[in-house]
Amino acid sequence: TSSAPAAAAPAPKPSPTAALEPAPAMSAKAHASPSVRKFARELGVDLGRLSGSGPKGRILHTDVQGFVKSVMSGAAASPAAAAPAAKGGGGLDLLPWPSLDFSKFGETELQPLSRIKKISGPNLHRNWVMIPHVTQFDEADVTELEQFRKDSNDAFAKSGVKFTMLAFVIKASVAALKKFPIFNASLDEKGENLILKKFYNIGFAADTPNGLVVPVIKNVDAKSVSQIAKEMTDLSAQARDGKLKPADMQGASFTISSLGGIGGTAFTPIINAPEVAILGLSKSSIKPVWDGKQFAPRLMLPLSLSYDHRVVDGAMGARFAAYLAEVLGDMRKTLL
C-alpha cells in the first residue's frame, strides 16, 4: 500500500501580542519624528500601517497610541493576528469558541438572548477586557442604620415611601465620592487625562424580567434619602414595565449593584465604562464583632468595590471602601 502523504508541519503558534510585535524593519517612508519612531519601535508598531493626523500627514504619538488601542480592542489587527481573529479569537489571539452539537449528548432547547442581554453583552465584554479590574472587599456595620431604616419606614408608612438599605448607601456614596473625587471621574479618550465630575449621578442596577438595566438618579447630593427612595421606586417600576427612557439610563458618574436581597457574601461587579469604579452590595448578616471588651452581635453589610487600576491604586481603593463603611456606620458623617 502506498504510504500516507506526509502531514504538513503545524503552523507556529502566534504570540498573544502578535499584533504588536516589531516588524523586521520600520517603514522608511513614514513621516514621523525620531521620538515617535522610537515610541513605535518600543510598542512593535509598523508606522507604515498608520495614517498620520499631524500637518502634512505627520504621524504623532497619539496616532501610535490609537493604533495600539484599536488592536487590543479587536478593531484592527496586524497580518500576524489576522488569522486567529478570523478563527473567532476576537482580535485577541484567543482560541476559537467551541462549536459542539450538544444534541448528541441529550435533549436541548434553543433560547434566544433577550434584547437587553444582546445590547449589554458586548459592553460588558469590552469593559472586562479593556479595564484592568481590581476588587476591594470590606464590611460595614449597619446595625444602627438598619434600625433607623425600619423606624423611618414606620414613620413614612402613609406617604408611600419605602426605605431600602440601597437608598442609604446611594446617599452615603456621595460623601465618599466627595472625599475621594478620583472615583467620580472618567479617563479621556486618549487615556492621558482625568475628567473630574462636579455632579453626583448614581446608577443602580435594577432587575427586570428581561435582564438588568441601570437607571440613574441625578444630583443625589442635593436630594434627601426619602427623595432618593421614592425616585428609586418609580424608576424600578418603569424598568420592570419596560418604560425607561434613554435619558433615565444616561449620565451616571458612579454605579451600585445590589444583590443583597438575593444572597451571597461577595462578588466582582464589572465597571461600567467610562466610569472608573462600581460598588457591589451582598446580603447583610449578623456576625460577632469585638467591641474592645466583648464580642457583640452586629449586622454587617459586605461591600465589593471594583475599580480601574489605571486610575485608582490599591491604597486609594482600600481607603474609599473603609471610609464608605465608616459613613454607613454613622450616617451623621454625611452632614459634615
TrEMBL record:
A GO CC annotation given for this chain: cytoplasm
Names of the cofactor(s): (R)-lipoate
Catalysed reactions, as listed in the record: N(6)-[(R)-dihydrolipoyl]-L-lysyl-[protein] + acetyl-CoA = N(6)-[(R)-S(8)-acetyldihydrolipoyl]-L-lysyl-[protein] + CoA
Species the sequence originates in: Noviherbaspirillum galbum
Quaternary structure and partners: Forms a 24-polypeptide structural core with octahedral symmetry.
InterPro entries registered for this protein in UniProt: 2-oxoacid_DH_actylTfrase, 2-oxoacid_DH_E2_comp, CAT-like_dom_sf, E3-bd_dom_sf, PSBD
GO biological process, one term: pyruvate decarboxylation to acetyl-CoA
Function recorded in the entry: The pyruvate dehydrogenase complex catalyzes the overall conversion of pyruvate to acetyl-CoA and CO(2). It contains multiple copies of three enzymatic components: pyruvate dehydrogenase (E1), dihydrolipoamide acetyltransferase (E2) and lipoamide dehydrogenase (E3).
SUPFAM superfamilies reported in the protein's UniProt record: CoA-dependent acyltransferases (SSF52777), Peripheral subunit-binding domain of 2-oxo acid dehydrogenase complex (SSF47005)
A Pfam family of this chain: 2-oxoacid_dh
PANTHER family (alphabetical): DIHYDROLIPOAMIDE ACETYLTRANSFERASE COMPONENT OF PYRUVATE DEHYDROGENASE COMPLEX, DIHYDROLIPOYLLYSINE-RESIDUE ACETYLTRANSFERASE COMPONENT OF PYRUVATE DEHYDROGENASE COMPLEX
Compositionally skewed regions (Low complexity) per UniProt: 1-10
PROSITE patterns found in the cross-reference section: PSBD (PS51826)
Superkingdom, taxonomy of origin: Bacteria
Family membership: Belongs to the 2-oxoacid dehydrogenase family.
EC identifiers of the protein: 2.3.1.12
Name the record gives this protein: Dihydrolipoyllysine-residue acetyltransferase component of pyruvate dehydrogenase complex
Keywords annotated in UniProt: Acyltransferase, Lipoyl, Transferase
Residue numbers spanned by region Disordered: 1-34
EC supergroup of this enzyme: transferase
MF-aspect GO terms: dihydrolipoyllysine-residue acetyltransferase activity; lipoic acid binding
